[in-house]
């Protein structure tokens, strides 16, 4: 099986997007499949047009000259489509697997139809909702509606559609996409990277001035993550648990505002910002945290999309507490594998975290249950099998001549 992946961006850039991609491609390679990846213009200018990173062959698209929307997006689609076509000539894929956002899917669709290749389009989040969550778009705007319509148009024409969670699947079905056409390939964890619970690094803890009641967040600082609510919860938490501290590892658009909020807090000395750390160092910081907190705000993006970070924490046998948005409810069973608290409510956050710190008797059993859930249902080595029947069906139909664009597979 030869799979050509089409990506917005990839390694060596580091993000949840690139880590999911890495896990998928490594798991497919472990099955003996041949894989290659084409990255889009948003990878940025690179020194090499072709390079192997972490064992994966990447082919880079030269970014076109920037133009105002929508001309800039059209140029990106054209540039990526040209590179996909060039790579397809050499790689000879059985299936093209394009990953959201929609620009990459559109570029892949043009090549797939010209070359009579089947296309699987994978959605990790709706681009229009991600723009709202990142503060670069407005729900219900003309651009928002146009992007949603384009995504629906593409899903109707792809041969199969993969989504990362039930929330996205349900939304597509409501748009009229046939349920049989959609598979759920949930976020998973590479247990080779996150499989061993980290030991506490006493030296690092001493260096950072951390004690034995540490609440942590490790990830990107976007508004929708709700870190402002977590910081706002700290005075009440410290009042209930005087030794409680907050450790924030990462960075992003909200970092300056969050640092200013923390500096103005009456418990500012209990809040530590670390900044971004290399991926290889992340485990050291997981080992310092007693409870990983994920206070995502309630909005369409967080209700529909499941995050990756709580799964990584559960794999590391960390205690997890998260807001009760839809994406978290798909991953966490309240009181069983984690704790859920009311979203957008600092008082609820403080109460939930104080309760966890006050009674640790259930922590060992909860850690085991959370780890078992990841091993059984969110392990990439087994998750990857969800793609196989779709790939096989599409590839065999193409080989025996029964596959046609806009066939019943496309309904």
TrEMBL record:
Entry-linked InterPro entries: Glyco_trans_4-like_N, Glycosyltransferase_grp1, PEP-CTERM/XrtA_GlycosylTrfase
Domain Glycosyltransferase subfamily 4-like N-terminal, residue spans: 16-188
Record-linked Gene3D superfamilies: Glycogen Phosphorylase B (3.40.50.2000)
Domain of life: Bacteria
Name of this protein: Glycosyltransferase, exosortase A system-associated
């Amino acid at each position: 099986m030869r799979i050509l992946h089409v990506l917005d961006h990839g390694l060596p850039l580091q993000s949840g997007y690139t880590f999911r991609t890495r896990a998928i491609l490594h798991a497919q390679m472990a099955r003996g499949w041949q894989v290659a990846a084409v990255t889009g213009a948003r990878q940025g200018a690179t020194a090499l047009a072709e390079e192997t990173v972490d064992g994966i062959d990447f082919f880079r698209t030269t970014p076109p000259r920037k133009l105002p929307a929508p001309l800039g997006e059209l140029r990106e689609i054209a540039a990526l489509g040209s590179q996909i076509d060039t790579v397809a000539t050499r790689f000879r894929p059985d299936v093209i697997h394009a990953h959201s956002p929609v620009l990459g899917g559109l570029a892949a669709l043009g090549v797939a139809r010209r070359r009579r290749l089947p296309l699987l389009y994978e959605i990790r989040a709706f681009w229009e909702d991600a723009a709202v969550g990142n503060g670069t778009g407005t729900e219900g705007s003309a651009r928002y509606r146009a992007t949603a319509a384009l995504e629906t148009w593409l899903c109707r024409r792809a041969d199969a559609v993969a989504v990362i969670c039930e929330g996205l699947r349900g939304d597509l079905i409501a748009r009229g996409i046939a349920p049989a056409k959609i598979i759920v390939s949930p976020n998973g964890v590479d247990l080779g990277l996150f499989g061993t619970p980290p030991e506490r690094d006493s030296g690092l803890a001493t260096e950072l001035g951390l004690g034995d009641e540490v609440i942590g967040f490790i990830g990107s600082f976007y508004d929708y993550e709700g870190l402002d609510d977590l910081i706002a919860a700290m005075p009440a938490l410290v009042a209930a648990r005087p030794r409680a501290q907050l450790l924030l590892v990462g960075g992003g658009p909200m970092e300056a505002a969050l640092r200013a909020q923390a500096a103005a807090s009456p418990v500012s000395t209990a809040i530590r910002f670390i900044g971004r750390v290399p991926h290889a160092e992340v485990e050291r910081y997981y080992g310092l945290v007693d409870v990983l907190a994920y206070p995502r705000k309630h909005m369409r993006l967080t209700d529909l999309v499941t995050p990756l970070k709580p799964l990584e924490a559960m794999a590391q046998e960390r205690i997890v507490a998260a807001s009760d948005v839809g994406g978290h409810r798909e991953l966490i069973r309240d009181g069983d594998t984690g704790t859920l608290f009311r979203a957008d409510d600092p008082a609820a956050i403080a109460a939930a975290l104080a309760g966890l710190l006050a009674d640790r008797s259930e922590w060992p059993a909860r850690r085991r249950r959370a780890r078992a859930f990841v091993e059984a249902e969110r392990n990439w080595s087994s998750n990857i099998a969800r793609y196989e029947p779709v790939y096989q069906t599409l590839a065999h139909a193409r080989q025996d001549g029964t596959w046609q664009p806009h066939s019943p597979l496309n309904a």
